[in-house]
Amino acid sequence: MRISLVVFSLLLTIQSFAQAFSVRGHVSDIYGSALVGSTIQLGSQAVATDLDGNFLIPSVEGGEYVLAITYIGYESVNQKVFVNNNLDLHFHLKEDTTLLDQVVISSEGVQSIKNAEKVSNQKLIEQYAGSLAKTLEYVPGVNAMEIGAGSSKPIIRGLGFNRLAVAENGAKQEGQQWGADHGLEIDAFSTEEVEVIKGVGTIEYGSDAIAGVIKINNEKVPEVHSFNGSATLFGKTVNDSYGASVQLKAREDKFFFKVKATAQEYGDYRVPTEEIYYLGTIIPIYEGRMKNTAGKNVSLYGQVGYIDGSVKNVLSVSNVYEKSGFFPGAHGLPNITTVVHDGNHRNIGLPHQNVNHFKVTNNFTYDLTGKSKLNALFSFQNNKRQEKSIFHSHFENQTPPINDPNLELEFNLNTFDAAFKYEYLSDNNHKSVIGLQYTYQNNTIDGYGFLLPKFNRFVVGAFAIHEHYVNEQLTWEAGVRADYAEIHIKPFYDEVLYDYLIAKGHSHNFAADYAQRSHQTDRDFTSFNAMLGAKYAYTDKVKFAATIGTNFRFPTAIELASNGVHHGAFRHEKGNPNLDPEQGLAFDFRASYVGKNFKTTFSPYAYYFTNYIFLKPSGKFSVLPDSGQIYEYTQSEALITGFEWSVEQRFLESFAFKGVLEYIYNKQLMNGKSGNYPLPFTPPVNFYGELRHSFNDWKVFKRTELFVNGKWYAEQQRIAQGESITPSSYSFGAGVSSTIRLGNVEAKANLSATNIFNAKILNHMSFYRPLEIPELGRSIQLTIQVPF
Amino acid sequence: MKTIKYIAFYSLLASAFFTSCTSSDDNLDTEPPVVDLIAPADGAKLEAGKDIHFDMNVSDNVALATYNVDIHGNFDGHGHGDGNHTHSITVLAGDHTHDAENEARKEFKFNETWDDIYGKKNDNVHHHKIIIAADAKRGNYHFAVKVLDKAGNQTMVFRNIEIVDPGHGDGGDHSHHH
């Protein structure tokens, strides 16, 4: 490894004292985060920094020495030091960018026990695929459920919806994640760093963090006395989308500011098909474009931070707005006349959805003694989702509302979070963390349709984690957590439905029973969880990590009390007020080998659920029009197992190959005579391969790379009830990326093509899969980022 | 070489996973019934006051359970103009919907479930049990048939039909395909 010698900043505090001198200090990165385990060499003595980034050389004779600090992935420090006093030195190491830009990254300085993968903003922009979850798909084990071309929701190991947690700056994102047509309301461009933690995050994140946690960090502290930013332009041919993003950050000494804005607009997307087949009807696709799938989104982000010695406070405010159309031919019963081209591919007609997510978070951190740290987080989120479609009641006695007559469904969810965390580092490399979390939610509804009742809910959780860094080879961790939750669901009586049923000649009792769309439901839940984990470095190159622990999820309001037809899912879904908290046991193992040119990671896992909550067909037809049979929420034992296996190989100096194989197997257990069906939305076996070639710098083109990639999905035969077998598919992509240096400006450009052969691919995890709507056709996209 | 050793090790592990997991799946039925709805045909003009000629062939790989016929009006998109008519769900707008006499009539609604196909693997259902009320509002309707098998798998077939004045029907067998 090439090491260049740059000291970013060196602060000396000199105190006068007697003959025997001590040299102590702190090593952190340029943002002030401690670099744990960096090596400090002073003359003939060598020590390492502890978990807080501190080091101490207790006895040094006076004189001149060379001080060397090394840390993998960072530029080393080599500095002459004259010791004639007790010294307290503070070092900020700069990331070794030449190393990070190489294809095979070995930046995991300290391998964590968790099965985690970090994705930088740079990588997100390079890989940008229209929405955040879709962009993260290249991380082994992550899949995305796409809702059109501009929004998507993440799935880890086949588990999505409320079975994974997304946290931004420590606060869990609370939207309408139970819904199949809900996309994650986070802007990929303004995301500074994403950490994908696969496996249970229950101890720290509580309910929902079953499959994993997508942890977004937007609180990176800018460098001292800096002002910089970047502008990004983005365009894509498959839906004629274009977008722009501007990011600015500034820091004086103690205060820092960030402003980010992104806007994107897209038209109807292109699909490689001329017709789709839905409910026995052939629906034509005019001009190869999915009518009314256009959309737009705007997101704004502002942040003010204060950092002074032991105090750090970061206040962030963000708003993400999105409007996107739904394909009208399959919203409810198939309809051919609505899909006729209206001469405009960029208008957003009905039906469509509006989503707005507003969030304020404040993170306060106080370093009490240098060995203990206190963190307080407060956050407020408002998620408002509206689904609009032409007033189309089947009840002739129902008149359109006077205000907003086409508002079919509205969910307005307010979430308030407060969380406190105390970290303590004791001698011999022990670290303890205790935390307390409180969440309050309130949901109100509107619209002429009914799906989910009003509710409010609160959760209190307390946890403790203990970590012991035994030696360079072994670290273990144990955690426990207790939670208590209450949910209060409001009743909803549907008079229109009552009158409709009476008019049809049903009895009063029958009609009244159906018209009571939700009942007053008051439930409280408790859950106790524990985990144990360890990592072990067998050699420098061969490492193992394993965790075993329980996980849980409190049933959602939709699972307890929904009762209605959702056009997206096209079935009458009925909640079950007697559900228990979903409880599971998970095992996660990881073995990795990291050599000079070869790197591989194999991670098998297994989840067992005592009561996996799912929708089960009841065999009874609903009296609600256009609904089919009733699907009821029910619970059964379930098993999920599988593995991710990734391989990276560099060869012939400038070539690199990367391959990722994913395999998932799941099924219900002990489900009685109704049968042990596989779970819905399960990704089939799939393989992703990519070959990269990096070129030498040539004229203005620096760090140029050429890549080709391919993705293969096996046939998914193991399907849940109501799903269809999805055939095998493969698609190919290629692209080139380069940094163009013109004078002082370095623009990063990325030109890539996806689905080059315009293959017709059905995605088993897509919202549009039941409608036989294929994935996006061929697309060429260009991203240009200019830093300043 | 060490690397090769590890690859071999992983491959073995991987294959162990595959073999242990792909064995013994229960006899699961995810295959929905097959429905061939012969009558009424799409676009059929059915006369008010008369019975509907209903004819379909149904089959299932395991066993059929029940079927349901649901008929309801498809008059949407009328009467609340908001400039969005390109998206309204108006199919073959009938002439009858706007005259005063028809406005006074009530929408015809029908929703009934039969289980005489229960347990059978295939069957022909042919009857005239669905009778359109004489005072049914004329116009466009959805005619939806849903068939369930014993495992709860569902197939849905639907037709756009029109309820017309007596004497103006086509018997329901008129073929109107695209």
TrEMBL record, chain A:
Family: Belongs to the TonB-dependent receptor family.
Signal peptide: 1-20
Keywords: Cell outer membrane, Membrane, Receptor, Signal, TonB box, Transmembrane, Transmembrane beta strand, Transport
Organism, scientific name: Myroides pelagicus
Cellular localization per UniProt: Cell outer membrane
MF terms in GO: siderophore uptake transmembrane transporter activity
Bilayer topology term: Multi-pass membrane protein
Entry protein name: TonB-dependent receptor
Domain TonB-dependent receptor plug: 116-213
Domain TonB-dependent receptor-like beta-barrel, chain residue ranges per copy: 349-741
From TrEMBL, chain B:
Record bears the keyword Signal: yes
PROSITE patterns, per database record: PROKAR_LIPOPROTEIN
Protein name as catalogued: DUF4625 domain-containing protein
Gene3D superfamilies assigned to the protein according to its UniProt record, in alphabetical order: Immunoglobulins
Domain of life of the source: Bacteria
Entry annotated with the keyword Signal: yes
Entry keywords, A to Z: Signal
